[in-house]
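Re-running Acyl-CoA dehydrogenase to confirm reproducibility after the cluster update. Everything else is unchanged from the original entry.
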Amino acid sequence: MEAPTQTNTLQGGSFLIQAPDPATSFTPEDFKEEQHMIAKMCDDFLEKDVLPKVNELDNKEPGLMPSLLDKAGALGLLGAAFPQQYGGLGEDFVTATLITEKLGGGHSFAVATAAHNGIGSLPILYFGTEAQKQKYIPKLATGEMKGAYALTEPGSGSDALGAKTTATLSADGKHYLLNGQKIWITNAGFADVFTVFAKIDGDKFTGFIVDRGTPGLTIGEEEHKMGIKGSSTCPLFFENCEVPVENVLGEIGRGHIIAFNILNIGRLKLCAAALGGAKRALHTSVAYAKAREQFKTSITNFGAIKHKIGEMVIRCFASESALYRSAQWIDDKEKALEAEGKPDNETLLGAAEEFAIECAMLKVLGSECLDFVVDEGVQIHGGNGFMDDYNISRSYRDSRINRIFEGTNEINRLLTLDMYLKRTMKGRLNLLGPAMAIQKELTSIPDFSTDDAPFAEDLKYIANFKKAILMCAGGAVQKLQAKLEGEQEVLMNIADMAIDTFQAESMLMRAIKMKNAGNEFADLAYDAARTFINDAADRINHAGKDAIYAFADGDEQRMMLMGLKRFTKTNAFNTKEARRRIAARAVEANGYFF
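Result of re-run:
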């Protein structure tokens, strides 16, 4: 099972079969001074221009959202990651991720900016012709033009390729006539340009650039939503919509390449935005708890509240550690592809595709971290949390969509295992060798030796979690074979095991690195990592049992259950006191402090 310690990770999904190295794990403690300055600029912009106007945004005050996007554009926050030759700042992927995180605390504004910067602009940047890029990207970079992305239809959500919108070449060969409907299009109420997907000749799924005001395009009324009320969400209707042939985006019949590759980046960025929202909600909740008194004392003095605050910090630390570790991997891969002479439109997309597994996991863990934090935030507020007068109620409503955006969490769980299996079949990842080694280990005498090296016990926990995953995945593939695709419950069980393990490993790498650097919060980082590992062991055990019960029986089942118990065993750790230490520091810092 053990592989040589890596010097860098440039192969997506390989964390499952590689021994990690804290020294090469990028963490937020590695941010450069310029990145800290950009982060502060984002914070200041939210505090001054966005957060004081969240009520007006939710009431859709005419022109307010576009004007805030204009201000963000003037600060360089819209085109930060775009190449300089197209009017952007040319910032690296980690910096772009940091901007997304920081703006993620802006409620509906965060949705508008994320849609514009990501799916609203990147399809043209990475798949457009040079003429298309010159025409649109400089204006999208400054916010002079706002972008939107039109993929979803009434009958096609997760099944994006089931779209019914058609595109027919006009008699004179100068236009494609689009007919159909798109729904839930973010920024549609004010967007100037749309990336739209339709089928040419009924089967060639293709992307198109459609300008606002194009004859035959009608923008419907604003939707009334549960949350993110300030964001514009409208349907689009196409009735012989005349799109010039030069506005075909990418290759005819290859629209799925655009849609799926852009979603990889979008999933990671959604995790970043969700993390920003979670940190803001944590700050709101801590501030309220400090001011709220019951029985003549602040409620922060009660163990139940300490537990909540401590766990909220731990979940944010987990998401943050996994997010920036992955963002740097993508950035490194992008640079490696550049060094190989790959064209610009293949570098970031190729890097994101390489780490599509991590992107899918990040989407799940980030959105579920946010849901946990805002839910606990409402609970800390008590009855006041249910009142619109308190911002935590807005955070609660706004959070829910994130488990649906960018592919539902169920779809992303299924994709995680699907991509692992496909890469194994294609020889891109060697999971078979480690999985077979674990099968042999199950019939051998367990290794009871101990290692006194620092963090050796914790590293062994992570290695064992990986063994549990490979054991269950290998057993499921061997037993179910072609039927595995239809056993979604089993696939999601194993995906949950992988998601927990990825977070646990990322947290531990960060804690070790902080300890080695003498960081003042290193001990609290270890408290967070070790508490997460302790709880993850129980979750991995439970998910593993569910999976094993579904496909194994008899002696095989008993042997796998014994292996699972061995691989998810952890020694005693006082998580109550660890959470209390973390909560005490969070109360002192008025929120997230790492």
